[in-house]
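Sample intake sheet
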Amino acid sequence: MFKRADEVEALRRELAILQAQVAEMPVLREALAVERGRARRHAPAPAATHPEPPEAVDDDTDVLPDLRAFHRAAHRELERARRSGTPVSLALIDIDGFRDLNASAGLEAGDAALAALEHRLRALVRTADLVGRTGADEYALLLVDTEAGSAVACVQRLLDAMADDPTPDPRFSVSVGLAPYRRAQSVEQLLAAAADGLTRARAAGGG
């Protein structure tokens, strides 16, 4: 009997303690909110974040296509010519004695010669034509809708313009190999045909 009364009394005391804790909870919550606000006010400001700068895009339109880019564009043009039957001609243009020019007059002279030749090629080509730098001192010129005879006249205009140009110092000459597109030829085959013509022009003394 007494043991049962002691247990009841113990339960009452625990219940009183729980009721007191529950009564204190709003006060505790309020104190916690105050502390959190104080911490936010005294916390250091977060470092400003800046977006990463956009990746630089090379939009230098003065750079001529290299061999790979020229090859892709020429392939599309030859496919068009194959379907339509329109004529296409390819010229390979090479600076005579370019290595000797670099050795004797310096790399700046070689760069000046390349710049002068590129300037003349840009002035010569039409919008539809393709021009690319296919070697250290070699350029390819794909003349669309152009028969072999008209291609010869076009190349001759280039040679005449360079001969009349007093700007390059020292002066230099170029050799040219020309090949007309034959049906079903690949770009590699057309380039090889023009390279054969270029070899013959060099053997004949260039210029």
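Comment: Residues 43 and 156 are 78 Å apart (CA to CA). The chain has six helices and four strands.
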